[in-house]
Write a structure and sequence with these properties.
By secondary structure, the chain is of the alpha/beta class. The chain has a single domain (7-17, 36-168), classed as Dihydrofolate Reductase, subunit A. The chain is built from four helices and ten strands, in the order ββαβαββαβαββββ. β3 (46-52), α2 and β4 (74-78) form a beta-alpha-beta unit. The termini are far apart. The model has no long low-confidence stretch (mean pLDDT 92). One of its GO terms (molecular function) is 5-amino-6-(5-phosphoribosylamino)uracil reductase activity. Pfam families: RibD_C (PF01872). This is Dihydrofolate reductase. It comes from Longicatena caecimuris.
Length: 185
């Protein structure tokens, strides 16, 4: 079955964008090094990406204004605006959790939750994220758009992998199942 994977970068203090909504701080210690090491492997395992309208707009205007950055993926943009869809870029007003449930019934590779924070938190609240792949960037922003909102729901996770390069720490967790939980004494 397809997995839903949150693959996202955040500052050491938990922000995915600065106070102006910008992400130009997303780099390791040496700006000349390749910081896409785990992304290049990750992207081969997905064929679908889900994001909010703000993330889509940022990708189109700031990150990759000349061409769509994910041409091989089917992109679902969760929006309240009516926009014309294409074969690979689909605008929808559908609830992201309902969309994920539908996509998981279809054949394909894993499903990437790209952002933003509102979409991530809606999906997390519904316990619909199977894997959390978080790149912790060696930057303290102090303020901005926080990845995880305050919630009363506790999520137990199991660490699958940890890797560091260029000051960035990649953390990969999976939702803990009853069979994977244990008591620490």
């Amino acid at each position: 079955m397809r997995k839903t994977i949150l693959f996202i970068a955040m500052s050491l203090d938990g922000f995915i964008a600065d106070k102006n909504g910008k992400v130009f701080w997303l780099a390791g210690e040496d700006a000349n090094q390749n910081d896409m090491i785990t992304y290049e492997t990750f992207i081969q395992g997905v064929d679908t990406v889900i994001m909010g309208a703000n993330t889509y707009h940022q990708l189109r205007t700031e990150i990759s204004p000349k061409q769509w950055i994910y041409p091989t993926l089917t992109s679902y943009i969760i929006t309240h605006q009516t926009e014309a869809s294409t074969e690979k870029i689909r605008f929808t007003m559908e609830d992201p959790v309902a969309l994920i449930r539908h996509l998981k019934t279809q054949p394909g590779k894993d499903i990437w939750i790209c952002g933003g924070a509102s979409i991530v938190n809606q999906i997390m609240q519904a316990d619909s994220i199977d894997r959390y792949h978080i790149n912790v960037i060696p930057t303290l922003l102090g303020t901005g758009i926080r990845l995880f909102h305050n919630t009363d729901i506790e999520r137990k996770l199991t660490l699958l992998h940890i890797q560091s390069y260029n000051g960035i720490v990649d953390l990969v967790y999976e939702r803990r199942t009853a069979s994977s939980s244990f008591d620490v004494k």
